[in-house]
């Protein structure tokens, strides 16, 4: 027996239509690449999105064609979010921080047919244009008169001139299949080539509902939301979509992510909620502390991308009365998986105990199932102690990558249900608060037990003579793997192997203490400052564990 | 091009699974029919829902079979919400306030195969059982030892014994098509026979997301929510589902809806949000005022079902610091359509202006499109003045009634999109706040213009000599219809036709003033206290407008 409800598909066009009808006058404020502050509204955004739709039709782009963007957070990027996806084309947000070679590789892999970019990225685009034969249309996100006389890009158009040709702003959004692709984003690809996550209208709308819930990002029409997290970073955590669903004000920082610029924007636009990665908040807090400033409207910050340091949570909460919400997600998850919104039980804890909970990545939203499993795939208990591979499933989590790259990423349970392996190792406590303890590939598997490389590193880092520490597993014939710790000493500091190993005693189980310490001058770091353990392991390829040296 | 996301269906079973995994210990507190307070949890609810699932399988009920309930708000009813729908059977909530003949008609029309009822309704069930041949299983929601020796119902089982037979509480919820029927509810049917709205898993889950949003019912795991609105009244506005999605505490009042019982429950269970119809809140406020009581935890009340009087909004807000949220919906809408959550612009208004907004039914949630149209189906402006038939569409609004009763209820626009006519006449202002001004069938259409029967009645009711007034339209050869007002005078009061007509002057446009006043001893009222205008029109079938009497 079937239900007898309307079979209206879940579409991104319905988000912008809702925002226009119900929140037409609500502002979209952007600090532009040009440096000035630009004011738009949901009504204007909807109108210009329809102009984009007509302009894409005029270019003859086919259904499903990819339209790339290389842009900061701003009103034109927002218009493209709705204008491109609403028509059934696929918005492909590109990360301008990538190496040009990698950028060209991704554009070619996605076969983008048009590319819209902020003028700040003109040099980058010039460098890759000749290597991207699929791109037929280059569009600079600027006024017609801001276009350079000789850009070096064949047929370059200004965005304003391009959409300005469509003086008729009427357009009927097509009734697409809700499972149609709406947008895509490539993973950073620390191993192998980047892989594309392809979102659908359905997944995007469901994520918009889930992310806006009170215990997630809590979006209301009364809010003024500042997404500092880039729109090229998993759709700014989906905030543009949730914002349209609830009709809140949006404030975009453009390229100015320094503490002063962000602070001034928060104050001028009465921002109530801001979302971003820890580094941005570090700059903001530094600026405020140096200048004795206060927030007058900010109530919440959502922090994700990497783990938030305790000192930052305390500074926001204790010094500025701003609630910090730790969040966790992935490109493959649209991205939101968990938000660390406390329940009444945690709110009743003393401050130090509460902080321990706030450091966790949080509880999953309805729509995200999660579990932790051991090597054999058996589910582990939610006791806050057992840790295992974190697997997730749900309607806004990928089933496969674009073009099937990497094969089938899912792991199937006994009921045939596919789970996406996050690549993280985590604990989950009885209240459902998840905490990432390691990356799966970094965890050391010793004698059937797991050792968190992060725990081993944190202890070394707490030693006054240690500047940086990396823990990696080394093959062992009996134990499978044994941990060693690779250490960079602070300039001028003295530290012996025996001293550091002794430092571990009492801080960690005896069998978790590293077998050896290797002193090096530097540990290889990636572009985002993360330790490159793959490279480190490569450098250690001739290393032999002390216990095995006699035999060698 | 399709998205590459997981194709997980939206299912009611996923709601209870989420609540169990993430909020197992969160309480479900019920005042029972037995009079005592019962304490359960989401964990126990999930476990007992699985026992129901196994017990339904044991009875041999087929996929899609209807399981009726005649029950107050309580933990067993909640268990049936998930246990019945989760398996692919259809939960059919019955309204015990209906006349037994109508109840039997509905049970037969739905062809319920099992019926679960609270012991308070045993006399009612005894009266209809013989007339309901489709019902093979009668289950009393009580302990085994509470079952009367001779109930008069063949094969009557106690719920606790029935589910208790399933000692194994493991069960794998089936992976249903999300468009499968999950539950049904009949409209009250003021004209003709009642009609069944058949909800799907998809519509229910989407409604659960929408209703839980900050600007709708705002449900968080921190909340303790008291649904006073009956679970047989459009699934208690969907609160059981939204509550499972967010894992909040639920508090059920059972049959005790008097002011004292409701107040004590709110205080004892630290209720933060309560939802119900105005009459219940009137009793609650009366009890509090008479006893000088205060709320210690209640923050919000959601009021729907009928328009909320201004005095009630003021009393909650000014005297008790409780925010009143006016909401509007229909059985055909799952039910939520609009909630009157103010935006910043309205919050900045002076109190009297703000109250005017709070009296409106509110703004639509994302997921509900609405428009107002004139007789020709042309859309009317959102200016707060123009009024017309209110039409709605969205994924949790019905497409048709059970068994196709009443034909195709939708009206189709120029794009072939079907809109459900609510039967209400409304205005919508520029900020999207909708206000119902009349029922479509009651509005008087005079010379191409519409006259609100409610406006005409409210003016008469403001006259000190008037106890009750009903405005109805009378056929007129030139103007189509002209309004007259039917009046019951207060006992001993004196009032002439001319005095009342003079009272209208200056309060309403001249052409909107009724053509005549008809004094009667009583106006026919329905079971819920609403005026029965159809009966009234029948009583007035020989009435002739003054202007036409000469010609007659």
Q: CA-to-CA gap between the ends of chain A?
A: 71 Å
Structural class of chain A: alpha/beta
Task: Point out poorly predicted stretches of chain A.
Answer: none
Oligomeric status: homodimer
Shape of chain A: globular
Helix content of chain A: 25-40%
Radius of gyration of chain A from CA coordinates = 25 Å
Brief descriptors of the model:
homodimer, 552 residues, alpha/beta, 9-stranded mixed beta sheet, 7-stranded mixed beta sheet, 18 helices, 26 strands, globular
Question: Would you write up a description of this structure?
Answer:
Two copies of one chain form a homodimer. With 552 residues, chain A is an alpha/beta fold. Chain A is built from 18 helices and 26 strands. In chain A, β13, α12 and β14 form a beta-alpha-beta unit. The longest helix of chain A has 18 residues, at 42-59. At the A-B interface, α1, β9, α7, α9 and β16 of A face α1, β9, α7, α9 and β16 of B.
């Amino acid at each position: 027996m079937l239900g007898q409800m309307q079979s209206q598909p879940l579409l991104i066009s319905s988000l912008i239509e809702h925002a226009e009808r119900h929140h037409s006058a609500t502002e979209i404020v952007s600090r532009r690449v040009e440096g000035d502050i630009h004011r738009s509204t949901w009504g204007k955004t909807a109108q210009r999105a329809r102009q984009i739709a007509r302009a894409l039709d005029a270019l003859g782009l086919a259904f499903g064609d990819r339209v790339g963007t290389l842009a900061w957070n701003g009103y034109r990027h927002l218009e493209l979010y709705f204008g491109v996806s609403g028509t059934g084309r696929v918005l492909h947000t590109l990360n301008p921080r990538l190496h040009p070679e990698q950028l060209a590789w991704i554009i070619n892999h996605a076969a983008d047919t048009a590319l819209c970019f902020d003028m700040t990225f003109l040099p980058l685009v010039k460098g890759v244009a000749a290597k991207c034969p699929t791109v037929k249309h280059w569009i600079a996100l600027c006024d017609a008169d801001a276009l350079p006389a000789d850009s070096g890009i064949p047929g370059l158009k200004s965005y304003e001139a391009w959409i300005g040709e469509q003086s008729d702003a009427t357009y009927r959004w097509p009734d697409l299949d809700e499972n149609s692709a709406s947008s895509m984003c490539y993973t950073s690809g620390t191993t192998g080539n980047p892989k594309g996550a392809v979102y659908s209208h359905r997944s995007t709308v469901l994520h918009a509902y889930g992310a806006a819930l009170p215990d997630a990002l809590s979006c209301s029409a009364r809010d003024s939301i500042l997404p500092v997290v880039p729109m090229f970073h998993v759709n700014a955590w989906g905030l543009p979509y949730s914002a349209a669903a609830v009709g809140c004000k949006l404030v975009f920082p453009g390229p100015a992510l320094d503490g002063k610029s962000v602070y001034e924007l928060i104050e001028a636009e009465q921002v109530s909620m801001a979302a971003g990665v820890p580094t941005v908040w570090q700059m903001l807090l530094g600026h405020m502390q140096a200048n004795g400033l206060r927030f007058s409207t900010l109530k919440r910050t959502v922090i994700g991308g990497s783990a938030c340091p305790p000192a930052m949570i305390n500074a926001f909460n204790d010094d500025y009365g701003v609630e910090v919400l730790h969040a966790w997600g992935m490109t493959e998850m649209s991205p939101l998986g968990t938000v660390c919104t406390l329940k009444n039980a945690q709110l009743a804890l003393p401050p130090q105990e509460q902080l321990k909970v706030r450091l966790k990545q949080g509880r999953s939203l309805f729509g995200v199932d999660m579990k932790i499993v051991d090597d054999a795939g058996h589910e582990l208990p939610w006791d806050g102690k057992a840790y295992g591979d974190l697997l997730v499933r749900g309607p806004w989590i990928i089933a496969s990558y674009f073009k099937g790259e990497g094969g089938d990423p899912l792991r199937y349970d006994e009921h045939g249900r596919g789970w996406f392996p996050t690549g993280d190792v985590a604990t989950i406590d009885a209240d459902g608060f998840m905490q990432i303890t390691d990356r799966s590939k970094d965890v050391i598997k010793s004698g059937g037990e797991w050792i968190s490389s992060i725990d081993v590193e944190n202890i070394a880092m707490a030693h006054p003579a240690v500047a940086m520490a990396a823990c990696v597993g080394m093959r062992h014939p009996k134990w499978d793997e044994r941990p060693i710790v690779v250490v960079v000493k602070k300039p001028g500091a003295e530290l012996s192997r025996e001293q550091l190993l002794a430092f571990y005693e009492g801080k960690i189980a005896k069998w978790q203490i590293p077998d050896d310490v290797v002193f090096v001058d530097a540990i290889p770091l990636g572009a985002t400052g993360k330790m490159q353990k793959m490279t480190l392991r490569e450098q250690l390829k001739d290393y032999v564990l002390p216990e095995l040296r006699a035999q060698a």
